[in-house]
Write a structure and sequence with these properties.
Elements lengths: L3 E6 L9 E6 L2 E10 L3 E8 L3 E12 L2 E11 L3 H35 L1
Antiparallel strand pairs: 1-2, 2-3, 3-4, 4-5, 5-6
Length: about 110
Amino acid sequence: MTGTTDILISSPSTGVGAHATIQHQFGNVEITITKKKAQAIHFSLLINDEHTAAGQLTLTPLNDSITVHWQVSGVIHSTIFGGYIALYMEYYVQQLMISAFNNLQTELKLRASI
């Protein structure tokens, strides 16, 4: 999140309709929860008040573990900016998600051992 200047969380901050706005040196992204199920969250993205995307985060329990699947698709109206965002989503956001879930797993293991 290097370059992030501000993160604004809505009220309500959880459930359908909750959203966060992330202001970054390269642009702004608004993330809104559009649907919530027991094992999934659907969300929409608005990038720089112009480019739109939708996605979902699904949790699949399997034995003693949970597999996390996430998917994002959308429309970017600028060929140069579109290529940059596609690469950013493919590599940076994927690594960010992996890191976040690894940190969450470590935190839960530490709490369980106390």
